[in-house]
Structure formats: C-alpha cells, structure tokens
Amino acid sequence: MSEGAARVPAEGKAGIDWTQTSLGAQRDWPPALATIYRLMMHSRQPMFLAWGEELIFLYNAAYAPMLGNRHPEALGRPFRLIWSEVWDELLPMVQRALAGESTWGENLHLVLTRHGYPEDSWYTFSYSPAHDDQGRIAGLFCTCIETTRQVLAERALRENEGRFRALLDAAPAMMWVTDRHGSCTHLNRSWYAFTGQTPATGLGAGWLEAVHPEDRQATELLFDEAVRNRAPLRVEYRLRQADGRWRFAIDAAEPRLDAAGAYLGHVGSVLDITERREAEERQTLLAREVDHRAKNLLAVVQAAVRLTRAPDVETFSRTLQGRVSALARAHNLLAKESWAAVDLLAMLTGELLPFLGEAPGHQGRATLEGPSVALPAATAQPLAMLVHELATNAVKHGALSVETGRLRVRWTLDAGRLRFAWTETGGPPVAGTPQQPGFGTRVLDGTVRRQLGGRILMDWRPAGLACTLELPLTSQAGDAAEETGLTWNAPG
After folding, report:
1. Residues 467, 422: contact at Cβ < 8 Å?
2. What are the φ/ψ torsions at residue 400 (nearest 5 degrees)?
3. Distance, CA of 452 to chain centre
4. Do 216 and 94 reside in the same domain of the chain?
5. 165-174: per-residue pLDDT in tens?
C-alpha cells in the first residue's frame, strides 16, 4: 500500500479486479477516494461515486437494484457507458457537478433499459463534487432514490381524482371534496350555480360564507369534528342562493380513504330540503289543527246532546243526527281541502241539499247569490252549524215547511268581513219573536257573537224570518271561544 493509502471495506474487494480499471488496486487508492467509498458501502441509502477522468462507477448494495441486469458488471465501468441511453440527459448535471456546483433533481423522468426493454422510471437525486486529497474535483458523488412507484401512484391518484371530479361535476346535487386537513379542494358546478360562488371564493373555507351567519359557527364546529375524528358528517343549515334567498339544506359527507385505508379527506353532498321542511311543517300544523278541530267538534257534539230537547226518542235522535251531520259535512270539506279553506257556496249547497231534495241555485225553492269566498277552517264549521240550524227551523216552522215557501241567501265580502243575509218568504205567517229561545237560537247567538266575533240580527217578520249577520274572516276565529268554554257554539 502506498503512503497515505486508506484501508477499504472487505466487501468492496469482491466481484471486481480494480487493477483492470484506471483506479488501480484498492491499496493504492488515495485517502479521499477510500473514505468516500467506505462511507458509501456502509450506507443503506442508494449511492454511487464516479471517480477520475473516465468517471469510473462505484456503488453500494442499496443502489444495485436500480441497475437491473446491469449489476454487477457496472462496477468499475465508465459512467457514460452504464447509462448510455440517458447520458445526453444527465450530462448537463454531470458537468455542473464537475464544475463545482451541487445539483438536485426531483422525480426526474428517465427511460431506461434495465431489464431488456425500455421502461419509464423516475428518480430524486443530488450530484455533488467529489474532491481528492489536494482539494481538486476528482469526480461526483450521488445520493438517490427511485420514485417510480410513488410517481405512478400519484399519477393514478390524480387520474382517479380527475375522473372522480368529472363525475361530481356531472351530478345534479351540490357536491364537495376536502383534503385531509379539512380544506375544500373541489366544489362541483351545481354548488357554484346554486350559490353564485366561484372557485376563488368557495374553496378552502370560503364555502362557509354561503352559510347563514346564524348557522355558520355550529356548522363549522361539526365539520371540524368530523375531520378530526375521520367520521361521517350530517348537518342542516340555511344556504344562500345566488339570488340572495335563503334555502334549507342538508349536508352529508363520508371520509374518503385510499386503497391502504389512509384518510384523504371527506366527500359530501348538499341537498336543498326547503320544500321537504315546509311540507313537514305543514303536516305538523295540520296535525295540530286536526287535533284542535276534533276537540272542538267533540265539544259541539256534547253540547248538542246536552241541550237538544224533544218529546220522544225518535225525534231526539233525528234532531241530533241532523246537527252532527252538519258538522260532519263541514269537517269533510275541510279535510278535502287539507284544512286550509272551504268554498262558501260548496258549504251552503252541502248543508241545504238534505232539506231541499234538490240542488239549490237560481231556480227552485232556494236561491244562493254571492261572490266566491274561501272560509277559513276556524269559520267554516261554526257557520255550517249556523246554516243547519236556520234550515232546520225553516223546515219545521218556516218557508221550507210548505211547498210555496222560498229561501234566498245572499252574501258579500268587503275588506275581509262577510255580510250574510238569510231571507225566507211564502211560508206560514210568523207570530213574532219566540218567547223562549231554543237550542238553535242559542247556537246562532253563541256561534256568531262569541265564537266568530261577529254580529247577528234575527228579524221575525210576518212574511218569514230574515237573518242577517256580519263576521270577520280570520284564521284566528274560534280560538277565543275556548277561553269562555263556548268552543263551537256550546252556549247556555
């Protein structure tokens, strides 16, 4: 060994006769070369050293798999011959390293013939000048890693992401994707069309700006919790439409995982549920209304049973049945219209038909005249009961008790107040105002004055009864009657 020569690892001696290269025997290597070689051979990081004028190639065991079937013949050969197919691509970086400049390449694409056929491969590496004992540049030193699998996996992921996002953009629902930190990386076209946002205003955390201020904090907390726990998300909030209107939306998401089960982020969809919520609210209100009306109807039936007077059971049954039927007909009309409103003409026709045996109208024994009026639910049943009592009285004692009798019903609507006139003619002479008011009279008074908040005038003229009433058409009518215990006409 010459003076200053360094000892080299024993494993470096196997498989090659260094005396056949320009480097000469290992015992004669300069200390700088021997030191770099020793460090390289003991490292598990893929490395190689190109030394001397020919850039003789030396590498460690970790680098060998990158050579493919060129190992072990590549040991001791010139760099340019080992990677001849890509030498033109590598030469500029080699020259910079030999000129004293360290270079760095990340995911550099090279087409190599390592296994007998050309193949795409990618590498991340650095070239650094290697100095001899006198400090002169004698070669280059490289640490590297093959990133082919990583690059191909990332490329496949990007391609899958591209297809995935294309599917999201084609979806009619609003959809979104986040990264593992919870930052929104994609909002589909439906989101932008609905909210009026753009990628510049919606991505990241910008989508929260489209959430109603009163719902924003709770939504963000639930969102952050789902990201933190890698858990499903389900939240309802108000979302601003592009025209500025607020709509109710439900946002549901699931964690997104790669093939190995690693968390990538969340993918979610947003649906406009305004119509559904309104329908649910209508159903709730309808259920309450039905319950309220059923209780009222029961109270009326109870009052009718308690106050109906008759000389015998048959008459009692017939009278009570007629009154309950009047309520039932109005109830059916309301149910058919979802307890929203009932047409006054339809209600009058339904109530008078059993008494006339013919459809009332502009011919026959009864004439009905007036504009189209929608009776609120709170007004329809009490008014039906009132008409029933008037018709019952007319059949027993008034115009409808004889063939020559006639009935005229007229109504007008002015500023939300209904004016209703019931006029009988051609019946038996009326002796005057009854001395003792019966159930029907008390129904009229209790219904119109106390329950509906209206006014009523009963004029017992010799030619026949003339009843006029005026009442407000309001959905709140009837509620105040509960306070007096007179819900639905339970007077007396």
Report:
1. yes
2. -85, 5
3. 43
4. no
5. 777 777 778 9
